[in-house]
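User: Structure please.
Assistant: Input sequence and predicted structure:
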Amino acid sequence: MKITFLNQKGGVGKSHIALLVAGTLAKANHKVAIDDRDEQGTLTHWTKTVGNVPLLKDCPEADFTIIDTPGHLKLDNNVVHKQVARTIEESDRLILVTEMSDACVHGSVIMAAMISEYKRKDAAAKVLFNKVRKQTLIGQRSQKDLAKILKLPALKHYVPLSAAYERAYTAGWGEITGKDRETILMLTMEILSK
């Protein structure tokens, strides 16, 4: 299964969510590989330092491939557009990562439209809200209503802003414990289901 995290908007946390899901699957003893297509190489660095999840080139027989895509994409560039369309077409799960703010949701509309246009009929596409602060007015908004703007369904689970998730990048998946770990586990299970 190929699980792709995408948004042409940078800074929404695609790489971070990808590493959390990859770490969760690896801890559950699944054969997982990372396909880091982001030129920043965030996941490549993570796998080589604390991630303990191989890159796809080192584990082509993986049961789950986690694909991280670049942010700040110029989708009006024909070459970039074709590359993104190809990534969408090859994916089994497409997770559009965004924050709950109007600016982030508005900035995600173009990618949502591309996902709808190019995804296979047997693939699932969902919106994941990241860095959610439920104690704020923005964080209390309806995920379903925001996802309607993107014309994609929202995942039931969201990822709250958490220091534990931030530490996982430098200290490994073991930094995530208790409720934080349960949140990512439930999110991962929801992504795997159709």
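The first strand starts at residue 2 and ends at 6.
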